[in-house]
Amino acid sequence: MTLEDLAQGLRESRGVAHKRDISVMMETLARNAPPGGAVVPVGDDCAAIPDGDGWLLFAIEGFINELVERDPWFAGWCGVMVNVSDVFAMGGRPIAVVDALWSNGTERAVPILEGMSAAARAYGVPIVGGHTNGRNESEQLAVAILGRSQRLLTSFDAKPGNVLIAAIDLRGSYRDPYPFWDAATTADPARLRGDLDVMTSLAELGLCAAAKDISNAGVVGTALMLLECSGVGGVIDVRAVPRPHNVPDTKWLLSTFPSYGFLIAAPEQNVPQIRARFAARGIAGAVIGRCDDTGVARLADGGHEATIWDFGTTAFIGCGPHAEIRR
User: Fold this and answer.
1) Residue 275: alpha-carbon gap to chain centroid
2) How deeply is 151 buried, as exposed, middle or buried, from its count of CB atoms within 10 A (0-12, 13-18, 19+)?
3) Residue limits of CATH 3.90.650.10 in the chain
4) Which of 3, 76, 166, 233 could join 116 in a cystine, given CB atoms 3.0 to 4.6 angstroms apart?
């Protein structure tokens, strides 16, 4: 696969298509936004609300029916896991989760709740309530989380010249048939919590400019969201992205969603400290690119570049300064 083919494959991937849908929602919200807007722009991993000397963090995740039907325990686990990751990506710590669960009979809800409960124990986050309907045609799940941050990380603060660092836990395997790299469900709970706390410590020490957890859009798709939100462009070296030895490059870059994965923008002088903190936890961390002022995202490989996205002409998720210009 050529670099141009890889860029085209990324643009056409399912994860990127899901993220592009956000731009329609953002246009509607922008048209109906109250005067003054939010303190932190809408479109980040969590909504952030000023609260005393810190920030309250709110997030919610919904899950596709296919996953909930085919692997209900894992869907329940993911309900907690992905929300927890969103909170840590913004420099916070989780407080509690609630769920909205529909099922065709209460017995069909049991494995979903068991998965949620297992993850809640592993991550040390209580399930404190929710909404249940056992008389639906099929199983559907959404989970919301409350957290708190003392020093906020957002997707809106990357600057030209910042380097991009990918931190990924490679101690896992695929949970077939999904493109999910699972380094969590069998891991020691204390290790999971300690690994996540690296993100909060980086925020509180002021070592990062911006951050985002790696989502179902993969490493590159997540980078597109961060770059667009911050109003910058950037280049990503596809060979520098941490990956398992036995996984094809295209599979890893086009579709893989890691259970532990964060993308960080930081001043270059902070790279040694950041990488050392991940390395101490056994997590692969590498500089995979750099932010610039072009407003264009590119892939690079061996001195050759291919454009993935021009934020000045086409919205990705429709957030950040380019969105304001287009409107």
Assistant:
1) 19
2) middle
3) 3-32+154-326
4) 76
Write the pLDDT tens digit of every residue in 148-172.
999 999 999 999 999 999 999 999 9
pTM of the model: 0.94
Write out the residue limits of the CATH 3.30.1330.10 domain(s) in the chain: 47-149
Instruction: Give me the pLDDT at residue 35, please.
Output: 62
Give 171-180's long-range contacts (Cβ < 8 A, gap of 24+): 171/282, 172/258, 172/259, 174/247, 174/256, 175/71, 175/74, 178/67, 178/71, 179/216, 179/251, 179/255, 179/256, 179/257, 180/256, 180/257, 180/258, 180/259
Residue 33 confidence (pLDDT) above 70:
no
Residue 299 CA, chain-centre distance (Å), reads 20
| Furthest CA-CA distance within the chain | 58
CATH: 3.60.20.10, 3.90.650.10, 1.20.1070.10, 3.30.230.10. Which one for 3-32+154-326?
Answer: 3.90.650.10
Chain segment 4-23, per-residue pLDDT in tens: 999 999 999 988 888 988 88
What is the per-residue pLDDT for 26?
84
Q: What is the CATH number of domain 47-149?
A: 3.30.1330.10
- Rounded CA separation 219/201 (Å): 22
Is there a contact between 253 and 217 (Cβ–Cβ < 8 Å)? no
Q: For residue range 71-95, list pLDDT tens digits in order.
A: 999 999 999 999 999 999 999 999 9
How far apart, in whole angstroms, are the C-alpha atoms of residue 44 and residue 319? Answer: 9
First-residue to last-residue Cα distance in the chain: 36
Pairing assessment for the beta strands 163-168 and 210-213 based on DSSP bridges = unpaired
- Name the one residue in this structure whose structure tokens are 């995979």: 288
